[in-house]
Each structure stands twice: as C-alpha cells, then as structure tokens.
Amino acid sequence: MNVQATTRSAMRHVAVKGHDGPRYEEIITPQALDFIRSLHRTFSDRRHGLLDDRFRRDVTQSGLDFLPETEPIRDDPAWQVADAAPGLVDRRVEITGPVDAKMTINALNSGAAVWMADFEDATSPTWASIVEGQLNLKDAINGSLRHVGRNGKVYELNSTRLTDLATIVVRPRGWHLLERHIQIDAEPVPAALVDFGLFLFHNAERLIAAGRGPYFYLPKLESHLEARLWNDIFNYAQAYLDIPRGTIRATVLIETLPAAFEMEEILWELREHAAGLNAGRWDYIFSVIKNFGTDPDFVVPDRADVTMTVPFMRAYTELLVKTCHKRGAHAIGGMAALIPSKDESQNAIALAKVKADKEREAGAGYDGSWVAHPGLIPTCRTAFDAVLGDRPHQKDRQRDDVEVSAVDLLAVSKTPGSVTLEGVQTNVSVLVRYLDAWLDGTGAAGIDGLMEDAATAEISRCQLWQWIHHSTPADNQRPI
Prior knowledge:
Layout: H1 8-11, E1 14-16, H2 30-56, H3 59-62, H4 71-75, E2 93-97, H5 101-109, E3 114-118, H6 127-142, E4 146-148, E5 154-156, E6 167-171, E7 178-184, E8 187-190, H7 191-209, E9 215-218, H8 224-241, E10 249-254, H9 257-260, H10 263-269, E11 274-279, H11 281-292, H12 311-326, E12 330-336, H13 344-364, E13 368-371, H14 377-388, H15 406-409, H16 421-439, E14 445-447, E15 450-452, H17 454-469
Parallel strand pairs: 2-3, 2-13, 3-6, 9-10, 10-11, 11-12, 12-13
Antiparallel strand pairs: 1-7, 4-5, 7-8, 14-15
Helix pairs in contact: 2-7, 2-8, 6-7, 8-10, 11-17, 13-14, 16-17
C-alpha cells in the first residue's frame, strides 16, 4: 500500500508491502511507522541475539534447572510487583479471541472482566487480519465500533464508556515471528513490535484518559532475559510517547518449559509493569516435546490424557500460583475451550467438566481463568465467586505448602495414559481441519465442539512427530 508521508523521516528506509484497504491509512500512518522504525532499530538486534540463545540451548545435554545466578532474586523476600492497574484488579473471568469486529463487540459486551484481544494463536496473520484488527480495537476504544453480519444482524457495543466493558489486554505475536509486510532497512520487522507498536501508538492516550491503560499478554517467552527486553521496550515506548512510566502492564503466559524455571525472574524483570502470570496448557506440553522430544522418557500420551492434574502439569501450575502470590501478582488459570451445544444433555455433561476444572483452579489459589466462549462465563464466574466472594482476588493466599523441584517439573514419565489409534486420528483430523481454516484466514476455528487455535495445531503436529520418531505403539500394538 502507499502511505502518504507527512514527515520525511517517517518514510525513510521504510517499505509497506501489504495491500491497501478501506481505512488502512488510519492505522499505517507515517507517524506510526516512525515509531515502529524506532523500536525496530533500537531492539531488533537484541531480539536476534535472544533467539540465537534459544537455538543454541540443548537441554537434552545440559538439562533444565533453576538458575544459580539468579538465586538472590528468588531468595529476596522483599520485592513485589506493582499494584494492579485500573481494570486489572478483579480478573476472575477472562474471555479470549481474535480481533475481528464481531468477536471484539461480543467479547467487550460479554460481562467478562477482561478480554484478551489475540493477534497471536487465535489470528491467522494475514495482512488484512492484522490491520483490520487494529482498526477494530481503535474503533472500540473510540466507542464507534459497529458490525453488520451476513444475515443482517447488527452488533454494537453496550456502552461507549470503556469502564462499562471488558478490559482490553492485547496479545501480540511471539518473538520468533516476523511481519513481512513492513520492512525497515530492507528487513522485515518483528511481528511483536508491529502488534505492540500500532496498538500503543494509536490508543494509549485515549485508554489512559478513559481510566484504563495499554495492557498486554506476552506469549512464548523462554527466559527472564526476554522479559527484560520487553521491559526495556516498555520504558522506551513510554518515554517516546510521553506517557508515565509504569502505565503499560503485562501478563506473561508461562507456556514454555524453560520459562517455568524462571517465573520469579520474569516477574522481577517486569516488576514495574507486571500484572501476573498465566498457565497455558497446549503450548506448554508442546514446549516439553520441543525440548525433550528425542528422549524416550518424555513421550507424552494422548493429549486428552494430559490434564492439568497429571504430576508434571500440577507441579508447574501450583508453582505458578505460589510464585505470583509471593510477589503480589495475579495468577490466571487455563482455557476452557468448549463451545456450548444446543443439545441440552450433551451441554450438561460438558459444562460439568468446565465447572470442575474452574473449581479446581479457584481452589488451588488462582485469581481468575480463561474461557473461549461467552456461554462459559457464568460457569467460570460461579466457580470463582464461591471462593473469592466479594474479594477481587486471593493474592493473600500464599501457598507456602507448595514445594516444587526441577525433578517435579520434568516428571513427564509419570503421566498416566497411553497412545491410542483414536488419539492419532484425532491429532491428524484436528490438525488438517485447523490448518485449512488458518490458511483461509481464520485463526480460531470451532472443531468437534471446541474452539481451537494455533496451539492445538502445534501440540497435534509435535505429538505425531514424537510418536513416529520413537515408533510408539498405538494401543500397545503396531508402531505408529
């Protein structure tokens, strides 16, 4: 697309390769590109170095353990993260989803405390999805977003006051991804900087004026040094845009195995901007296989068997609660991906499972949890209301009873369950159908009664690879 330059610096060494579309010029402005260019030139080399560190790490040789060099941070009882920001005090129900117009309106109207506006796993990263998603967020924050469905149904926000709607928390894409439609100095820009930069540039001032702020979910971090990079970006961006330091807040998804060993350090690096940690199931299991997939002791059974209560998952999720509450941060639980059915008997069975899962999380000390569909909000809220009552969270529950070692976090071989032909077929079926939707521009797809995203594709793909690699017998018979 062509961007009309209003400043000479904005367009120097910047190329926008994406197509033009209605109102795209409101997002891809010279001033916004200048901001992204500044972020890219200041921080991309550090990103490259941290990604190189990921590729050089061979945990099958060195193992994983808590870092001895950061032990003073873990042992210091005094430090705490910043107090919760406006709109992030009570987070007992969070809804997640892509940033298309219909989802944006439904999520903000849903009654959830928070909406995670997802440019990552729930978005197929076409140029249209990225730019139009930013437009939808800008319009929603301005109070003007409106959508007319194919059937003529009109979707509008229940209020123009942001404080009456779910708090927006944007999830940018991970550090490993590039946005090839924007090039600076002939290099594609890190996708995370595009998603973060465009949202912050266009909306920070209005969010702050409305009694909210620019809030983010940070995905796929693998070390506290990657969190340090984000923290430095936050400080740089706040100075660039002349907004108070600490206004940006970030919740980090602990969805990689290495990050589970550095949770306190991640909070410490982000402490002025930290809002909490979140436990992500499928990506975490994928990361286990990614790191130890060639080791026969780490063969993971059918993913349906790998619940949050199996030993290695329980160790990680309980350590997350203990870590967050020790440091004054929110602990946010995992996803309920069910799509409610019109069949009442089926629905009752499925909702009972969601209820049990959310009651388990609330009972374990979590301060809130995720749902993928508005129909699950009452079930999730009821589970947390029963534990929290009128309190906005339970950060005073310290979980001193939890003791987790490196051995506990790596106890994959203790996972009950087996590899079955049905599990193989499910992974193939879901993977192929999801990729079909993703290639067609849909990042969140309803499959077999569940809302699936890219994390499902990752766990399905890597499990199939692992089973083939180890000639794992399905149903204890023929090797896969």
